[in-house]
Amino acid sequence: xxxxxxxxxxxxxxxxxxxxxxxxxxxxxxxxxxxxxxxxxxxxxxxxxxxxxxxxxxxxxxxxxxxxxxxxxxxxxxxxxxxxxxxxxxxxxxxxxxxxxxxxxxxxxxxxxxxxxxxxxxxxxxxxxxxxxxxxxxxxxxxxxxxxxxxxxxxxxxxxxxxxxxxxxxxxxxxxxxxxxxxxxxx
Length: 187
Fold this sequence. Notes:
Elements: H1 2-29, E1 44-47, E2 50-53, E3 58-64, E4 67-72, H2 78-88, E5 94-96, E6 101-104, H3 110-147, H4 152-185
Helix pairs in contact: 1-3, 1-4, 3-4
């Protein structure tokens, strides 16, 4: 019975960690006025009939804090990459010079920074909801173990451990969101 409890707690912890990893990936995509190649993560381009991430068909470099260059390995990929960036709606218009694509990031206005902070906080809230749902599933799994013969003390102890993991992950989410907010609001 104890191995069943440990399996439930382990699974709950892993799923919560995945939710946290997803939050980190989503928050990375929100730009803070600095050009990073990760801004283009999630954008795909049609490459010989199948979708491929831009980073797999081109070299992406941050020239300075406000400029990204994208140099495709094949010249015929310039137009599809440009279309993908436009369709991705990342707030930047690509400039194609026939060899490379340049992305010039405009400086963020105060209003735009606040919009990005709201977006970060919304992502944080989505992550917290996911964590709470995972906690609920873990608690239900422990209740099923109780029906199979787990003692009431065992249930209380397992629920306490699941709640402790949940609290820890919620604090981590708050920490990530606060750090991104500071980054966004720094001029």
